[in-house]
Amino acid sequence: MGVTQRVPGSTAELPKVEAALEYARALHLGQRRKADGAPFISHPSEVTVLLSAAGAPDDVVAAGALHDVIEKTPATAFDLRRRFGSKVAALVVAVSEDESIHGYSARKAALRAQLDSADDDALMVFAADKISKARELRRGPATLALRRRKDRRRRLHHYGESLALLQRRIPSSPLVGQLAEVLGELTGRGSSPSVADPGKRS
Q1: Positions in the chain whose pLDDT score sits under 70
Q2: What's the number of domains the chain is made of?
Q3: How far is 125 from 140, CA to CA, in rounded Å?
Q4: Which domain holds residue 71?
Q5: Of 14, 53, 132, 174, whose CB is crowded by the most CB atoms within 10 A?
Q6: Alpha-carbon gap, residue 48 to 109, rounded angstroms
């Protein structure tokens, strides 16, 4: 499917994307974002805007709307395939964690390895997701309780490792530059931060 002509950042004129957002909104109903308590749908909605602005094809933008439903709702890959087609379902599967892997670091490392063998479309969804999640970290103070500080450090490490993967695989994507900029703000390393200090692994 080709890229639909549209105003960057707009999902108007994209019926599959609008349907995907409506489905995601229903599935995520009642869920809240940890950073600020906003409705969780704010996150996948932001991901779709990022992907649309980057010129991603309709199926990729739709996958951005649905990228968390396998992990966080009862929806399955079969459900997505039936409603939105095999391409969208495959992309959501590609960016979904293996919940059977115990431990944050091990689970995130497995996800990155999974993405390293995925196609560029899946990497775009992954990049947009990481931009949105990194932006969430800016909504809360960096100096919090020990547990919150530990969570922040390990998330920044994962995002840094994710950036390194994306810089290697899709270096020309505008999403990669945006992620580098956000992480640079969070780490104080400018717009092109290096991978987070391995010594900060959790």
Answers
A1: 1-13, 140-144, 189-202
A2: 1
A3: 24
A4: 15-200
A5: 132
A6: 25
